[in-house]
Amino acid sequence: MERIKHDIISGSLTPGAKVDSVRDLAARFSVNPNTMQKALSELEREELLHAERTAGRFVTTNKLLIESIRYKEARNVTEGFIKQMKSLGYSEEEIIEFLPYSFKEEE
């Protein structure tokens, strides 16, 4: 479920895109089809996916919803990063000073 949600909010699965079948997804993620069905049902409950009776499941076209969930996930990642840095003994000021160097290492 988390992987599919990540693919939606990162743009790997675009709004309106058809999602693979339960069996195909279960095989890809090495899980039981019943487990995959539950995960997809949960994503439908969150309105990230919707089912069309004979055509399959599709990613929502609600870009505002996708962006809202993306923002929440980014906040969670950021808060986790800050907690980890603080557990290493860094102060808020040191964390802020550290960030520009992190971006330079990616280039």
> If strands are numbered along the chain, what order do they take across the biggest sheet?
1-3-2
- Rounded radius of gyration (Å): 18 Å
CATH superfamily of the largest domain: Winged helix-like DNA-binding domain superfamily/Winged helix DNA-binding domain
Find the structural class using helix and strand composition.
mainly alpha
Largest sheet: 3 strands, antiparallel
Number of domains: 2
- At the third CATH level, what is the topology name of the largest domain? Arc Repressor Mutant, subunit A
* Range of helix content: 55-70%
Your description of this structure?
This protein is 65% helix and 9% strand. By secondary structure, it is mainly alpha-helical. The protein has 2 domains: 2-61, Winged helix-like DNA-binding domain superfamily/Winged helix DNA-binding domain (Arc Repressor Mutant, subunit A), CATH 1.10.10.10; 64-106. Strands 1-3-2 form a 3-stranded antiparallel beta sheet, covered by helices on one side. It is elongated, with a radius of gyration of 18 Å.
